[in-house]
């Protein structure tokens, strides 16, 4: 809506107040005139959006009228696939899932609500095992309370073409600006709509098998940020009462230096500490401490959860309200894992037993929705997504082996070059957009014993200048060690930003073939989601490190040893491309490949997602180190954007190796960096480089076009200068190295 991709004639309404308030103005952040406003006599107003094709909807956002004090305070949604038959958007008591299953007997569609948990294990006949209880409610979504604030709601299990916003109550007039977040549903695919949380659905290569996968270990380690120095602001902490100013609700943070939270009395069994987590999370664990500096703590407690801040339910296990074991002293941290997944944006800690007084300092652990990048096919297997003309090659054997036949699982032979003697032969694909590639998959020829046993890939942004993909500065060769027939597939995991990709075989069996498809997520889902996807893919790569080995000093992937099995491997280092080439280097009988590539479309969202180095962010002081610092006014930990201290400065200006280093705690895809000068004094860095590392030991200098990138820094002490990285870089540690400065090297 906001970017105009949906044309004006696809945005309609039940009525319009006047010519200045048409439906087409109902777009998020539209400010050129009034928003859409319904006619004053319209008793059943709605704003309707035609998405033109079926989409899976993940979230919606609303604003009021930017030109007047008019907004919708709450609303409902209606959905339709044909524009004629409409249904209300409904949610179960806890979680609703729409699962569309294509089974052997036809199309089966089921709507399931879960207040406890569900486990799906579908074999060839899709036997479904569930434990559930359903209470479905037509949802009234909270709208706006001012003109311009954006209010977003995550939507569950929605597959629709048409969407209606139905205002229920309003202030000043029925006026709205809206946005819809989702992904186009592709024809012929099985879609399993998850809760956009750590429940990660995936479809196996066996088209009759589906599984539900939990990333429990990761989830239980992910602190949301309630602890001191975390990402959750003081305003998120509330309580019905607090004892005095030493025990405010906002002091209820794990490791808080103040007392913590305590209620006014110990006699009210309904007292609680409530936290607004800002986003919806799957809650996996909770942790508590007692009061700081006094012998008061909570020995038992329950938790209550809510999606909207109004309706709360008590967390249960085995259908019984769970009483958690709390603390036995004032400072020890007791962490409890939740056995049942719980989705919440709001959480309440409800003391039920205590020592000295009900007192709490808390943290919550959970994760935001994610999908596994390595399961997101870009669509080479589908000519409706990547057209035939995107496939080119250095040569092809004959009309049975055209480049466009190089699609994974294709019914044609696949691609094969004219002969096996040219080491430069390649299959090239224009992916149409830039992608972050996280995996590649290959097969041999269809119907004949010919396959490629290892290959290189080459990448390009412009289709002219290609570079060979490397790991640890060595050319990466993908070697097939796992399959022994022509149809099995090997999947090579990677995470590279590319638009074009060339693939070249390195060992042959029979005539050389490539059939391929590339995976991605073109969905916006939630603004926050794309970064999580990127991070999750990086994390997943670590699991495959044992699959990698060196062959003649070249790090190799698993390639093919037969014609049909699919082999998948990961690329560990990041690069940007629009084209990809597959270049065979070894083969059985002939160079033969059918391939798939997996990845996501990089978006501007990445560059807006601050990791949390700024003042009040999630990165602790202990993560900041430096080669030196000037004095206690310029410590490394003061190098936070918008900090109240001076910032970081080295001992002298004469050491060119001085740097400010930050441990980001997790591995990230770095998309942008920002700097300021000193606070309160005319000192700043004019130019700098950055160095990146995954282990904190081996650092590499960030480059663009194979040249060390020197970033433009600041021209005064206060302005924030942000620089976007043209090449994606994976790092857990980052160093800022000043190369030019005004008055003194100084960084926020």
Secondary-structure class: mainly beta
Largest sheet: 10 strands, mixed
Helix residue percentage: under 10%
Q: How many helix segments?
A: 2
Region (Disordered): 1-27
Biased composition (Polar residues): 11-27
InterPro entries: FA58C, Galactose-bd-like_sf
Domain F5/8 type C: 1-92, 219-367, 373-496, 606-748
Secondary-structure map:
Blueprint: E1 11-13, E2 36-37, E3 47-63, E4 71-80, E5 87-88, E6 90-91, E7 95-103, E8 106-114, E9 121-122, E10 137-138, E11 141-142, E12 151-171, E13 175-184, E14 191-192, E15 199-203, E16 210-214, H1 216-219, E17 237-238, E18 273-289, E19 297-306, E20 313-314, E21 316-317, E22 320-321, E23 324-325, E24 334-355, E25 361-367, E26 377-378, E27 391-393, E28 427-443, E29 451-460, E30 467-468, E31 470-471, E32 474-475, E33 477-479, E34 486-508, E35 518-519, H2 529-542, E36 549-551, E37 554-558, E38 563-570, E39 577-588, E40 594-600, E41 624-626, E42 660-675, E43 684-693, E44 700-701, E45 703-704, E46 707-708, E47 711-712, E48 721-742
Parallel strand pairs: 33-37, 34-38, 34-39, 35-40
Antiparallel strand pairs: 1-3, 2-13, 3-12, 3-13, 4-5, 4-11, 4-12, 6-10, 7-8, 7-14, 9-16, 15-16, 17-18, 18-24, 18-25, 19-20, 19-23, 19-24, 21-22, 26-35, 27-28, 28-34, 28-38, 28-40, 29-30, 29-34, 29-39, 31-32, 36-37, 41-42, 42-48, 43-44, 43-47, 43-48, 45-46
């Amino acid at each position: 809506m906001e970017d105009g991709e949906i044309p004006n004639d696809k945005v309609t309404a039940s009525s319009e107040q006047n010519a200045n308030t048409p439906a087409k103005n109902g777009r998020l952040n539209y400010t050129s005139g009034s928003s859409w406003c319904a006619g004053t006599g319209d008793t059943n107003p709605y704003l309707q959006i035609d998405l033109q094709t079926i989409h899976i909807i993940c979230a919606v956002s609303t604003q009021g009228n930017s030109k007047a004090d008019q907004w919708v305070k709450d609303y409902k949604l209606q959905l339709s696939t044909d524009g004629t038959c409409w249904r209300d958007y409904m949610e179960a008591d806890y979680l609703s899932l729409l699962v569309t299953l294509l089974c052997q007997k036809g199309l089966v569609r089921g709507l399931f609500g879960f207040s406890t948990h569900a486990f799906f294990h579908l074999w060839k006949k899709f036997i479904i095992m569930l434990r559930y209880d359903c209470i479905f409610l037509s949802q009234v979504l909270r709208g706006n309370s001012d003109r311009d604030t954006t209010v977003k709601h995550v939507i569950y299990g929605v597959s629709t073409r048409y969407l209606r916003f139905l205002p229920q109550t309003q202030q000043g007039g029925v006026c709205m600006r809206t946005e819809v977040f989702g992904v186009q549903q592709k024809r012929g695919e099985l879609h399993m709509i998850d809760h956009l949380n750590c429940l990660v659905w995936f479809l196996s290569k066996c088209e009759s098998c589906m599984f539900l996968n939990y990333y429990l270990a990761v989830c239980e380690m992910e602190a949301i940020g309630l602890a001191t120095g975390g990402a959750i602001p003081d305003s998120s902490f509330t309580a019905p009462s607090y004892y005095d100013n030493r025990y405010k609700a906002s002091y209820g943070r794990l490791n808080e230096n103040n007392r913590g939270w305590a209620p006014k009395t110990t006699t009210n069994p309904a007292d609680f500490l409530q936290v607004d987590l800002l986003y919806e999370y799957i809650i996996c664990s909770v942790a508590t401490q007692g009061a700081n500096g006094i012998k008061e703590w909570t020995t038992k407690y329950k938790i209550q959860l809510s999606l909207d801040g109004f309706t709360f339910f008590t967390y249960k296990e085995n259908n019984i309200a769970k009483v958690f074991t709390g603390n036995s002293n004032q400072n020890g941290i007791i962490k409890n894992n939740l056995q049942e997944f719980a989705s919440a944006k709001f959480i309440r800690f409800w003391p039920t037993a205590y020592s000295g007084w009900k007192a709490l300092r808390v943290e919550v652990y959970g994760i935001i929705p994610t999908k596994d990048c390595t399961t997101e096919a870009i669509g080479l297997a589908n000519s409706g997504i990547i057209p035939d003309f995107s496939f080119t090659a250095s040569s092809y054997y004959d009309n049975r082996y055209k480049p466009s036949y190089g699609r994974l699982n294709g019914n044609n032979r696949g691609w094969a070059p004219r002969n096996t003697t040219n080491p430069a032969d390649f299959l090239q694909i224009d992916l149409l957009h830039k992608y972050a590639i996280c995996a590649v998959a290959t097969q041999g020829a269809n119907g004949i014993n010919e396959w490629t046993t290892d290959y290189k890939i080459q990448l390009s942004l412009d289709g002219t200048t290609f570079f060979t993909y490397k790991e640890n500065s060595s050319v990466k060769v993908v070697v097939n060690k796992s399959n022994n027939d022509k149809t099995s597939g090997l999947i090579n995991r990677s995470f590279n930003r590319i638009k074009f990709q060339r693939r070249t075989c390195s060992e042959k069996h029979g005539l050389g073939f490539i059939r391929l498809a590339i995976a991605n997520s073109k969905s916006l889902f939630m603004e926050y989601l794309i970064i999580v996807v990127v991070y999750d893919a990086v994390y997943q790569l670590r699991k495959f490190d044992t699959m990698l080995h060196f062959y003649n000093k070249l790090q190799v992937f698993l390639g093919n040893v037969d014609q049909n099995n699919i082999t998948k491997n990961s690329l560990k280092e990041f690069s940007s491309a629009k084209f990809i080439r597959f270049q065979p280097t070894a083969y059985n009988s002939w160079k033969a490949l059918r391939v798939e590539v997996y990845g996501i479309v990089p978006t501007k969202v990445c560059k807006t997602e601050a990791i949390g180095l700024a003042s009040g962010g999630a990165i602790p002081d202990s993560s900041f180190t430096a080669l030196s610092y000037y004095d206690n006014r310029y410590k490394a930990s003061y190098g936070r954007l918008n900090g109240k201290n001076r910032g970081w400065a080295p001992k002298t200006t004469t050491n060119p190796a001085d740097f400010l280093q930050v441990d980001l705690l997790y591995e990230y895809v770095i998309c942008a960096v920002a700097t300021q000068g000193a606070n309160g004094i005319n000192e700043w860095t004019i130019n700098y480089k950055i160095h990146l590392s995954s282990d904190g030991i081996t650092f590499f200098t960030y480059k663009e076009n194979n040249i060390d990138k020197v970033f433009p820094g600041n021209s005064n002490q206060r302005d924030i200068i942000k620089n976007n990285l043209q090449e994606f870089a994976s790092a857990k540690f980052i160093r800022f190295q000043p190369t030019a400065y005004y008055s003194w090297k100084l960084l926020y």
